[in-house]
Amino acid sequence: MQAKFSKIFLFFSWVIVLYSCENRPSYVLSQRQMTDFLIQLHTLDGALAAKNLGNANDSINKLYYSALLLKNDYTQKQFDSSLVWYTQHPKKFERIYTQVVEQLTGLDEKVRKGLYHPVDSAALRHSTEDIWPLASKRFVLSRDSTPTTLPFVIKNRKLAWRDSYKISFLMRMAPSNKSSDTKFIIRIHYANKQSDSVVCKTFNDSLLRRYRIVFLAKKMHRIDSITGTLNYYSKFAGRFDLLVDSMEFIRQYDAIAQDSIHKVVNLYEQKKQKSESKTSLKHAKPL
C-alpha cells in the first residue's frame, strides 16, 4: 500500500513540475502584451534606421527605448525576464513572432496604399525651439546709453540633461567703445549648485561679426536656469558704441524622450541623495 501511495505521489509531483514549467510566472508579460510591445519595438527600430540615426546601442537612441518602456509601464528587467522566459518556450515565442510579422506586414501594406500614416517618433529627435527670453532681438548702445551688460535669464521646466543649446547673434563694436576685457558668457545652472559655462571674446574693431556657440547640458541633473551676459566687461570707460542684432537662442532636444530623461535624472538624484545620507550617518559621531 505504501509503495502504491509513493507511486501516486511521484506521478502528481511530475504533473506539478511540468505544469509549473509551462505556466507563465506573474512577472512575465502575457503573449498579447509581448506581441504589442515587440511591434512597437520593431517600428521604432525601423524609424531610427530610416532616419539614419544609428542603432539601439547609441547613447541617445537608448533614451527612445527607455521612453517606449515608460509608455507601456514596463521595466527593462521585466522585459528582459519575459524575453528569457519565452526563448525557453520556443513554441509560445514562435506564435508571438508569427503575429508580430503578420501585423507589421499588414501595416507596411497599408502605408504603401496610403491608408495608414504612422507618426515618425524618430523625427522628433531633433525638435527645436527658440527660447530667447527678452522681447527684443536687437540692441543699440550708444554714448547716451545706461551702462549695461545686457544680461538675460532663462527659466524653463522643460530644460533637461542632454539638451543642446545654440546661441547666435550679430555684433559690431566700434573702437570708441573703451570697455576692457569684453566678452559674452553663457552659464547652465544645475539643481545641485554646479554649473557649466562658455566664454567668448568680442572685438572692438567696427566689423560686423557673427558670433555662434553650441553647447551641451552634460551633467545628469535638473537644470534650474540658464543665464548669460552679452556685453561683459571688467571695466567700463568712456562710452558704449555697440550693436547686437538677429539674436537667437535655440534649444535642440529629444521630444519623444523628455519624460524618460527627466525620470532618469530624478532617479539619479534620489540615489545620490540616499548615498550621501548613508555616508553622513556612517561618519556621524554619537552624542
Overview of the structural elements:
This protein has 287 residues and is α+β, with helices and mostly antiparallel strands. It has 2 domains: 18-118, no CATH class; 127-257, Sandwich (Jelly Rolls), CATH 2.60.120. It is built from 6 helices and 9 strands. It is elongated.
Notable traits:
287 residues, alpha+beta, Jelly Rolls, 2 domains, 4-stranded antiparallel sheet, 6 helices, 9 strands, elongated
Query: For the residues shown, what is the average pLDDT?
Result: 78
Q: What's the helix count? A: 6
Share of residues in strands: 15-25%
Q: What letter string, H or E per element, gives the SSE order?
A: HHHHHEEEEEEEEEH
Structural class based on helices, strands and sheet pairing = alpha+beta
- Separation of the first and last Cα atoms: 71 Å
Fraction of residues in H or I helices? 25-40%
CATH architecture of the largest domain: Sandwich
Task: Give a short summary of the structure.
The chain has helices spanning 2-22, 31-50, 61-72, 76-87, 90-112, 258-283, and strands at 127-130, 139-141, 151-154, 164-173, 183-190, 195-201, 209-216, 223-232, 242-253. The protein has 287 residues and is an alpha+beta fold. The chain has two domains: 18-118, no CATH class; 127-257, Jelly Rolls (Sandwich), CATH 2.60.120.1310.
